[in-house]
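<context>
A single protein, sequence plus fold
<sample>
Here is the protein in question:
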Amino acid sequence: MSNKLDEVVEELKERGAKLQEKLEALVRAGNVRRVVIRDSKGKAIVTFSVTIGVVGFLCAPLLVTVAAIVAACSDCKVEVVKTKK
């Protein structure tokens, strides 16, 4: 069982294809728990839980979806919540 002390939040600055590449690398590293997209006020717009099944089966559609949402939102942040290694 995990708690907030075991988590690290990394904010991604990349956009477009660079964002997809960075997310893919982080997800494949295996320690990503969630990807959160927040609006300019800090409110979570969408949260994706990342599980073992997502890494193997749904990684590409997840990354495309995140990139599309970020492209549609002019001023949003992408946060990756990871477990400490």
In short: The helical segments are 16-29, 52-72. The radius of gyration is 12 Å.
